[in-house]
């Protein structure tokens, strides 16, 4: 199994339990360069919070995910977040990234 596949599985496991997460994507150099040449791993997520959900808890969990990712892969995980209200901005951002892989 290649490193990108391992990262996909790792990210899926790390994010799957979050009910506020709608979609998550890997973008950037990790998709077009060998793992050893990538400086980091870039992730884009679309989230939505409903009444009663804990945004602060989710942000805290994201920090833990980033720390755990670095421990496991020795590369920083950069997470860009869009909310449901920012879908136009998300579409524009995605259109600038030729290489995109859905997790």
Question: How would you describe this protein?
Answer:
It is a single chain. The protein has one domain (3-102): Alpha-Beta Plaits, CATH 3.30.70. 40% of the residues lie in helices and 23% in strands. The chain is built from 3 helices and 4 strands. The chain has helices spanning 3-15, 55-73, 87-95, and strands spanning 21-27, 41-47, 77-83, 100-102. It has a 4-stranded mixed beta sheet, sandwiched between helices.
**CATH-defined fold name:** Alpha-Beta Plaits
Structural class: alpha+beta
Top CATH class: Alpha Beta
Strand/helix succession: HEEHEHE
CATH architecture: 2-Layer Sandwich
Strand content: 15-25%
Cross-sheet strand order for the largest sheet = 3-2-1-4
Distance between the termini: 16 Å
Find the count of extended strands (DSSP E, 2+ residues): 4
Helices and strands, with pairings:
Elements: H1 3-15, E1 21-27, E2 41-47, H2 55-73, E3 77-83, H3 87-95, E4 100-102
Parallel strand pairs: 2-3
Antiparallel strand pairs: 1-2, 1-4
Quick recap:
With 103 residues, the chain is of the alpha+beta class.
Quick tags:
single chain, 103 residues, alpha+beta, Alpha-Beta Plaits, four-stranded mixed sheet, 3 helices, 23% strand
